[in-house]
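This is your field. Have a critical look at the following sequence-structure pair:

***
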Amino acid sequence: MDVLQSIVVFLHLLGMAMIFGPWAMGMLEKKHRTSMTMVIGAATQLATGIMLAGLAGADGNHAKIGIKAVLALLLAIMIVVPWYKKREKVASGHFYGIGGLTIITVAIAVLW
C-alpha cells in the first residue's frame, strides 16, 4: 500500500507542476492564458486527490480533504472554462487567481 500511495503522491505533484509551470511562464511572459497542459494538470490533481482521499480511508483529515477538494474544483473550473471557450487571454485577476489558488492549495497540503 505504501508503494501505491507513493506513486499516487508522485502523480499528484506532477499534476501540480503541470498547473504551476505554465502559469509561472505566462506570468513572466505577460501572456495570461490557460493551456491544455494546465487542463490535464487540473484533471490529474482531481483524480489523484480522490485516490489519495480513498487511500487515507477513515484515518484521513476530513476537514483538510474537504477544503482541498473545494479548492481543487474551483481551480479546475478557473482553468477549464477559458480554455474550453478558446480565449486567447484571460483577465489578469483571473490569471493571478489561478496561481494564488495553486499556491494556497500546496500550502494547505504541506503545512496542515
